[in-house]
Amino acid sequence: MLVALAAGAVVAASGVGLGLWATSDDAGSAASRSGDLAGSPPEPSPTRSYPLSQAPRTIPAVRDHSAERGPGWRPERGHRVVVGDPALADEGRLIAGELGLTYAGEKDDERAGDLRLVLNKGKGANPESYTMTVRGGRVTVSAPAEAGVFYGTRTLKQQIRGAETAPEGVVRDEPAKQRRGMMLDVARKHFTADWIEDRVRELGDLKFNELGLHFSDDQGFRIESDSHPEIVSEQHLTKAQVKRIVDLAASRHITVVPEIDSPGHLGAVIAAHPDLQLRNVNGGVVRGAIDISKAKSAEIVDDLLDEYAGLFPGGQWHLGADEYQALVVSDPEASFPGLAAAARKKYGSGATVEDLATGWLNDRADTVRAHDRTPRAWNDGFFKGGSVQAAEDVQIAYWTGKEIGARQPVEYLSEGRDVVNYNDEFLYYVLGEPHTFVYPTGERIYEQWTPLVLRGTTAVPAKYDGQILGGSFAVWCDLANSQTQEQVAAGIRMPLRATVQKLWHPDGEPELSWAEFRALADKLD
């Protein structure tokens, strides 16, 4: 009994409350609220000798914890991981290896110390939600889908790493936002496959579910291509390496979102196909811009979209569409008469170069939609008015309000569009800090940003919250040699943790101070 009391004291001292939870002294009533553990009575039985448990300390913080009395659970040699469904084998083997447990597969019996993973498939339940019950010397993680079970194991892993013991009681948890991402610019700077895989593991443990790969730009095209090998940069990822990254990400329930930006930012493609270079009325070259009046321009981009659809099986696709340099001049029709003529021919006498660019976006959206992908594009690729409008299902990746003719975020939201928040004021890590960018800090994200803050520092009205699908931290490599891979990893460490905390929780004010949050991150890493 002295040992049990000591264990209870360790549990009581191991954390602070991070969510909203019931704190009833009646362990029996807590047991009746959760039917996750069936079978023999708890061993040892919780008594009033144990103080009420406190919530696990994790990043992101759990949403709800029902406190109970008991010694909690800690992994020991000989403890098993058992699964209630063969689909959970990957999750079971992963957490078993991480905690030094024995993976036992599907078992119906119960033993002391068991960690059981269970699918409770229910209609309408958030597939990323989970329940973690610690009671009677055992742990059960149950969820409607594999993703939820995985997130439950991440909570358990972090708690064991930080405090060695998972507290008695029931965690009920789910994310506030469905899109929780990090975008990586591998076009301007080559990152090794091993480095990217390390980031995938980091993102998975933090409950991110997207990794964006921007792999085509003016400075490079960084993934092996069979349809157009002539455009690929000397330093690049092979398809085998990308497949390994994609498979690793899938095992962590992370979708890899590819981006081939067009019709701007195509310099690496144009370098191998100079006949597709956009030129102005005076014959001057327009950097990175492809001539969208030429059929061959669409053919080569669609070739690439079709090719990589097989390499990236996730449901999302980023089409770029930003900063097309034909549209940053005062009079696009006068500066680019060939584009203006093509617009009128395709869309009627009043059509403009903006209409032609919007038509290009819609055509590329058709290409990826044929592969069952949901298209996404940067907000400055959407234009007000005009005779051609962007397809309604193209999600807006909102990053800036600095473009010519900038539109307030509410304009997009009032049209009923779904938005992913990439706010460049908080979430842009731009190597070398060009163009007034400064490296974002985790503290500023943690204390000032929420998913409703789409542009600058001002939040949009809360009534639009449902249209903001989530957010993404973004690493851009404008001055590629400004930092090494290791410096990038160190620089984004705390911003990533702050970002996911704000995407997981609906509350604007975190429970922990920044100093406490940073100390917790140091303890968990």
Walk me through the structure.
The structure is a single chain. The protein is built from 15 helices and 18 strands. The protein is elongated, with a radius of gyration of 26 Å. Helix 3 links the parallel strand 2 (80-83) and strand 3 (102-106). The strands form three sheets. Strands 8-9-10-13-14-15-16-18 form an eight-stranded parallel β-barrel, surrounded by four helices. It has a seven-stranded mixed β-sheet with strand order 1-7-5-6-4-2-3, with helices on both faces. The model is unreliable at 1-43 (pLDDT under 50). By secondary structure, the chain is of the alpha/beta class.
Topology readout:
Layout: H1 2-13, H2 27-33, E1 64-67, E2 80-83, H3 89-99, E3 102-106, E4 115-119, E5 130-135, E6 138-143, H4 146-163, E7 169-173, E8 179-185, H5 193-205, E9 210-216, H6 239-251, E10 255-262, H7 267-272, E11 277-279, E12 285-290, H8 295-309, E13 316-320, H9 332-335, H10 337-347, H11 353-369, E14 374-378, E15 395-398, H12 409-414, E16 419-421, E17 428-430, H13 442-448, E18 468-476, H14 485-504, H15 514-524
Helix pairs in contact: 3-4, 5-6, 8-11, 10-11, 13-14
